From TrEMBL:
<dbReference type="InterPro" id="IPR041468">
    <property type="entry name" value="HTH_ParB/Spo0J"/>
</dbReference>
<dbReference type="GO" id="GO:0003677">
    <property type="term" value="F:DNA binding"/>
</dbReference>
<dbReference type="Pfam" id="PF23552">
    <property type="entry name" value="ParB_C"/>
</dbReference>
<dbReference type="Pfam" id="PF17762">
    <property type="entry name" value="HTH_ParB"/>
</dbReference>
<dbReference type="GO" id="GO:0005694">
    <property type="term" value="C:chromosome"/>
</dbReference>
<dbReference type="GO" id="GO:0045881">
    <property type="term" value="P:positive regulation of sporulation resulting in formation of a cellular spore"/>
</dbReference>
<dbReference type="InterPro" id="IPR004437">
    <property type="entry name" value="ParB/RepB/Spo0J"/>
</dbReference>
<comment type="similarity">
    <text>Belongs to the ParB family.</text>
</comment>
<dbReference type="GO" id="GO:0007059">
    <property type="term" value="P:chromosome segregation"/>
</dbReference>
<dbReference type="InterPro" id="IPR036086">
    <property type="entry name" value="ParB/Sulfiredoxin_sf"/>
</dbReference>
<protein>
    <submittedName>
        <fullName>ParB/RepB/Spo0J family partition protein</fullName>
    </submittedName>
</protein>
<dbReference type="InterPro" id="IPR057240">
    <property type="entry name" value="ParB_dimer_C"/>
</dbReference>
<dbReference type="Pfam" id="PF02195">
    <property type="entry name" value="ParB_N"/>
</dbReference>
<feature type="domain" description="ParB-like N-terminal">
    <location>
        <begin position="46"/>
        <end position="136"/>
    </location>
</feature>
<dbReference type="InterPro" id="IPR050336">
    <property type="entry name" value="Chromosome_partition/occlusion"/>
</dbReference>
<keyword id="KW-0159">Chromosome partition</keyword>
<dbReference type="InterPro" id="IPR003115">
    <property type="entry name" value="ParB_N"/>
</dbReference>
Amino acid sequence: MENSSKTKKMTGLGRGLGALLQDSEKINTPRSNSRVSAAEVVGSMSEIDVNLIEANPYQPRTKFDQEALQELADSIRVQGIIQPITVRQLSEDSYQLISGERRLQASRSLGLTSIPAYVRTANDQQMLEMALIENIQRENLNSIEIALSYQRLILECSLKQEELGVRVGKNRTTVNNYIRLLKLPPVIQAALRDNQISMGHARAIITINSDQSQLKIFNKIIEEGWSVRKVEEEVRKLGMMANIQTETKKQPTINQEIKALQFQLSSFFGAKVSVKSNEEHKGEIKIPFTSQDELNKILETLKFK
């Protein structure tokens, strides 16, 4: 483990995270005693017993690369923990992880009994926000995990897309592109999560309105190895076909008789009456009004008053 006799403030926590964590002006040297008082430990860096740290319930990552974890463990064995984890104190002998899940797992795999940690105060919403932002910026999350994290920040932390973009250093369009992925059929989301298709494939597929068509294109990607460009070409073709079909399904232009009737009714009621009719002579007549007086006039004309 690294141990320095000098006190210094640790920086480089990632864009947006430092402001959330509100680093203390005074950070003490690592302590070997995990049972220090809350007054001493909050805002400081201390050595915490790994058995006293419980998992973060807001951890967005659902899968960890075991090979990458082993590489991290090998690095820790040689270099020690370079970047402390961050926890919040629940009680005298209990802490909850805010960020640093991989470092904690790797340390436990090496049989380490303690780990350097920053101790912070945070409520549940701050916990969620800090964990999500830290993981989005520091971990190699897949596209679906990022999308889910963005969605949770918006829904559970009441952030607007513009605010979220500022927190994670992305523009609103990028944030929206990720969130839209969650509208894809589950099988396509799973394939994106498991790196069977790329973000480019998914962004092309999401522009198709029909789930059935999306799945058809997806199957072609898997079975025939379609490139992103090939998918984009097929999506354009589907779009052109959809436009043609829409044009053919449009109702015929209202005929002159309907236009004449519409004019007569508008004059009769003193309002812009709308008349619609199809080839089967089914339709509707709409008489709009914008005030109680206008409604009374229409009712009087109809002899209802």
